[in-house]
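Predict structure. Chain length: 142.
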Amino acid sequence: MSTPLGSDRRGLEIIDFDTCLSRLAAQPVGRVAMVERGDLVVLPVNHVVVGLTIGFRTAPGTKLAQAVDGKAVGLEVDAFDTESRTGWSVLVQGTARVATEAEAQRLEGAADPPWVAGADTWVVIDSREIAGRELSSRNAAG
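Prediction complete.
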């Protein structure tokens, strides 16, 4: 459980930075959001967190093309419990790029095998903001 830093305007608890990183690392699947040809695209990815480096593997295609361009991306990871109506979400905002060889080696050392054949190119998200919110039993409706 995180130590609340206060609440946002909707009453959701703000998650501290270290807990955000820990929760990002603990969830193997997140969603990357980007704009491609003027349309919003959201795709699931298996990501890895090593220190402050957040990366995911990809095969040639949409995500890799976006990364090469260095465009803005978001990575969202969450968990929830429908019975208690509680949950949390962490959002990373930044730009994506192909990982350096050293970064790729560090990420590879921490990663499970890829889920998709041909996903052998590492993409790193250079974050400009990492923020999280939590809906706990203290502030859940109902």
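Summary: Residues 10 and 139 are 10 Å apart (CA to CA).
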